[in-house]
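User: I've been trying to design a sequence by hand for this structure and keep getting stuck. Would you show me what you'd pick, starting by listing the structure so we're on the same page?

Assistant: Good idea, let's start from the same input. This is the structure you sent:
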């Protein structure tokens, strides 16, 4: 049965989707079978894996509403071992539809994934940058959470709200959910601010902070516009090397 990991941060622009997709690509490259579920209505994870169609009728929206079987919604990517259930523009309205479900509305995604978890080693969920019902569904379906944090002061603001949401999910919906770790993104080792932010994060999370830090890298920013992971776009750039090392550390910690 797959280990389900949610990549979540309520703040946008912290490298959440970039981390989710590229970690998935490198974990798949190491022989694992990985499914990425794009729960963000913006659909950036879908685009980053080459799926630009925003009106796809076999998307996570249809899965959540029961119009599509989860197995039929899974798509193959151009990377061996990497699969996706894509987002669509309709997902923006799913939150309202889920809110009308009186019983079990927080567990819809968990129930849908239960039918296909046995087919994969990992399921990575790219959460929306908010703390609404789509994110709660994602966290309730997950065994663990990876929190990408940008090396800027504002990235620290609101982090307590994110942690409080995880605590509430743990208390009422998913008792075994854990923070797998915190990954530092957009890191500039030359900047005092970056070092200061890392110190503050380490004070809060201690050993939960991954050793590998993801640097600012132009190639990482370019890759999604070509519908490619950094592994396919430019595997020799600094960003690609960082994500390869991060995937190794991620697997090492998961297997302990």
């Amino acid at each position: 049965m797959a280990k389900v990991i949610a990549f979540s941060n309520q703040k946008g622009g912290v490298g959440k989707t970039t981390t989710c997709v590229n970690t998935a690509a490198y974990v798949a490259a190491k022989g694992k079978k990985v499914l990425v579920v794009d729960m963000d209505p913006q659909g950036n994870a879908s685009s980053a894996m080459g799926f630009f169609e925003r009106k796809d009728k076999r998307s996570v929206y249809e899965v959540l509403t029961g119009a599509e079987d989860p197995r039929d919604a899974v798509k193959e990517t151009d990377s061996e071992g990497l699969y996706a259930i894509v987002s669509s523009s309709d997902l923006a309205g799913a939150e309202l539809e889920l809110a009308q479900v009186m019983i079990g509305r927080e567990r819809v995604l968990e129930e849908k994934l239960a039918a296909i978890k046995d087919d994969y080693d990992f399921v990575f969920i790219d959460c929306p940058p908010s703390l609404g019902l789509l994110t709660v569904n994602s966290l309730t379906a997950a065994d663990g959470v990876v929190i990408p944090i940008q090396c800027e002061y504002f990235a620290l603001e609101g982090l307590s709200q994110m942690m409080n949401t995880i605590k509430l999910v743990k208390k009422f919906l998913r008792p075994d959910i854990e923070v797998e770790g915190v990954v530092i993104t957009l890191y500039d080792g030359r900047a005092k601010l970056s070092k200061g932010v890392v110190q503050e994060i380490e004070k809060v999370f201690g050993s939960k902070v991954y050793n590998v830090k993801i640097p600012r890298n132009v190639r990482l920013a370019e890759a999604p516009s070509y519908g490619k992971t950094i592994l396919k776009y430019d595997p020799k750039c600094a960003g690609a090397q960082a994500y390869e090392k991060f995937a190794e550390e991620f697997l090492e910690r998961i297997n302990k």
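That's my pick for every position. To get oriented when you compare it with your attempt: The chain has 13 helices and seven strands. The longest strand covers residues 178-185.
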